[in-house]
Every structure is written in C-alpha cells, then in structure tokens.
Amino acid sequence: MSFAALTRLQQGLAALQADHLERHRRLLDGAQGAHVTIDGQRVVSFCSNDYLGLAADPALVSAAHAALEQCGVGAGAAHLITGHHRLHHEFEAAFARFVGKPAALLFSTGYMANLGVLTSLAGRRGEVFGDKLNHASLVDAAQLSGASFTRYRHNDLAQLEGQLAASTAQDRLIVSDLVFSMDGDIAPVDALLDLAEGFDAWLYLDDAHGFGVLNGGRGGLTERARASERVIYLATLGKAAGVAGAAVAAHASVIDWLVQKARPYIYTTASPPLLAACLLESLRQIEAGDARRERLHSRIVQLRAGLESLKVGTLMPSSTPIQPLVVGANAEAVQLSQALLERGLLVPAIRTPTVPKDTARLRITLSAAHSADDVTRLVEALHAID
Ligand SMILES: *Cc1c(COP(=O)(O)O)cnc(C)c1O
Description:
Elements: H1 4-18, E1 28-29, E2 35-38, E3 41-45, H2 58-71, H3 79-83, H4 86-99, E4 103-107, H5 110-121, E5 126-131, H6 136-144, E6 148-152, H7 157-166, E7 171-177, H8 189-198, E8 202-206, H9 223-227, E9 231-236, E10 246-250, H10 252-261, H11 263-266, H12 273-287, H13 290-306, E11 314-315, E12 322-328, H14 330-342, E13 345-346, E14 349-350, E15 360-365, H15 372-385
The structure holds pyridoxal-5'-phosphate.
C-alpha cells in the first residue's frame, strides 16, 4: 500500500535540500559560552544570544544547586493548580520592580508568552498591527488570536497610522520587536506610543534582545513607555538573562487578565522552580552588570570598525549585540559560514524564509564573554576570505 502523504513529505525535504534551505541541528557538548564544542569541534561561537555570558555563570549555577536541594526538579503542576512556587512569585515581583512596571507574569518561554498575550488581548473583534520584521512567534500569535491581522512595512509609522485610522476594531493592539532579532535595530518606541495614544490602542513590545543589554539592563523601554498603562513589555529570559522563560510586565489589571485568560500560561506545567531561583540570581547579575555591558559594547565597536571595508558583505546599521552581515544569496551565505567554520569560527547563515529574499546574512552576535582576541580572529578571517 503506498503512503502518498509520506512520499510528499520526503519530496518536500529533498526540495529544501536542493534550495540550500535545509536546517541542521549542530550538536553541543558541555556548557554554552564564547568557546564551545560543536559537532566535536572546538570553535569560537558568534551565534548565541547569551549576550552577557550568564548562561554558565558560576553564581547562577550555585543558585541552581541550592534551589535543587530545596525544591527538587519538577514543578509538578500548572501555576493555577499547585505549581506556582514562591520562587516564581518572588521573581515576578523583582522583575516588575526592575523594569519599572506595576506587575509581571512569568511564562515558560517567550513563544508561549507571545501566544498568551496576543490571544488574550485581541480576540475576534480585535485587530493586531504588526511590523513586517516581527519575530515569528508574534506572527503566529497574531494569526492564532483570531483577530484581524494587519502588517506594516518595517518601522513605517506613516503606513501604520493609516491602518490605525482605517480600523473599526473594538480593541487595537500594536505589536513590535523592540530590538529586531535578525537586523539588530531598535524600534521607535515613543513614536509607536504616540500612535497607540492617538488611536486608543495597546502597545506590546517584545524586548527579547534588549533586556539585560540596554539602559543598564532594564531593556529598551523609554521613560514614557515605562510609565504608560498602554505599554505591555516582554523580556525573554533565555537570552541575555542566560536561563529560560519570559516575563510580561504591565498594568496589574493586564497581569490579572492574563492569569485568567492566557491559555499558554494556564494549560501547561509551571517551569521548574529552580529556574526561577536562577532567574533571581540572573536579575542580580544584570542589575550589577555594567562591567559586562561595557565589555560587550567594546566588542561591538571593535567588530564594526574591523569590518568597515569588507567587500563580501555589508554590516547592517546596528548598535546592539546583533550584527548582521548581509551577503545576499542563500548559497553564498552558507558558503561563507562554512569557510569560517573551517577556521574554527561559528557564525550561522540566516536564510529565507527567516529573512526576506536576497538578504541572506551571517548573523553575528557578540557577548561580554568574547575576548578582544576572539573578535580579532573573526575580523581577520573575514578579510582573508574577502
Ligand atoms: C527568541 C525570541 C522569542 C522567543 O523566546 P523564547 O523564550 O526563546 O521562546 C520571542 N521574540 C523574539 C523577538 C525573540 O528573539
């Protein structure tokens, strides 16, 4: 008996391979860091989001050990049953205080937080307005919310204004990455807030890449956005914070509403409390992390200066740890990434459909854990290939 669906799937895989779009999982041994063992090879990694080098930090590891002794491994139940541990609760309060919002809610991942927020705040009578370069999880969340979903060109506020003016929806929700994950640029927060105020909309900002890094670690919110009841802030905690999870910070009524309505919060087992203990320690490290942020900043300046005259690709204008080197075609990006790997430097090629067609790139990410030598090696290797 032939199995047509399986055959189609195998043809689909073959087509991805032919188009250089097939994705592979590299095998990591040991801890995350600037130097890692991947597929058995020791390399300098320029692709983690561990911007402050906290993922394997001894203080976080100790916090994990201590919590492990006290609360074991599993949370055992969902937050609304018996899984909501005092450590989760303490982290939420500490996080809200740190980012300057009245209340916060801890989700297991950023993907789930985005699903939870968008599906709870925008229903069938709502409209979601999203930047075209928003992270995939925000796109999925908007689509699953059942709201109408309108996308505007990257940071094109005039287009967004026209769309808001034309909207007849009951609830409007403007959604944007705060630091764009594939470009590294920063959204115009106050201008977005002006539009949210002008058209009585919520503004949801996903700061997966700014939290821990920008403004003394507090992330990319401006003072106005911090103070605004309309602004809902998301930090993911598996990137600069070095652990896992995501926290939404907002007006207390928004948080109360999410606890009642956000299905990815309600219908899932709480994350292990020991992770919340790690997050509390991570928050302390972030608060006291100016030296780490200064180191990170020096590496960014060093890389940008070093790659100014490169011909093989162009660095996008970015002041954040995300430094994309745009190459163009998928195959070229893959070849360049391969040539770097042969020199012991791990920089992934990002291809369509993750980024628009013909903008395939090397997504270089920097960390406070990189030494100046690490960056020099990358700069020299790119010039040697150029
Ligand atoms: C990584 C990322 C997410 C997803 O967060 P996870 O905690 O990894 O699920 C959401 N939004 C943006 C912009 C991201 O970069």
